[in-house]
Amino acid sequence: MDHRLFDDVPYDYAAVAAPGAILFTAGACPLDAAGNVIGPGDPIAQAAAALENLTAVLHQHGAGPEHLVRTTIYVVGDRDDLVGVWEIIAAGLAPHRPPSTLLGVSALGYRDQLVEIDGIAALPA
Hints:
CATH architecture: 2-Layer Sandwich
Shape: globular
Strand order of the largest sheet: 1-4-2-3
Number of helices: 2
Number of domains: 1
Largest sheet: 4 strands, mixed
Oligomer: single chain
Strand content: 15-25%
């Protein structure tokens, strides 16, 4: 069966992790160093903060965004909020395009939290 996938998507459909260690991150939240939610009510500011926190975790383990092989992005809001958050995440990871799932959810763990990102990375040798 010759099944064609839609080509004009802003992510790769799959990634192959090289043999070696794989890093599974917890959801990166838009929290500052004191544990306060950054940008209450602003999903765009929260997307940038959550991506910055995810990147910090990757760096702590000797990796960077280019090592991500999968992300899941959770957004409280409507479709326009999801699209706006996706644009921030995609731009922040560019030119890397890990396979990703973008989900609209009704609530996240911290009061005023609108965005969370988790990732899976293949650690460099």
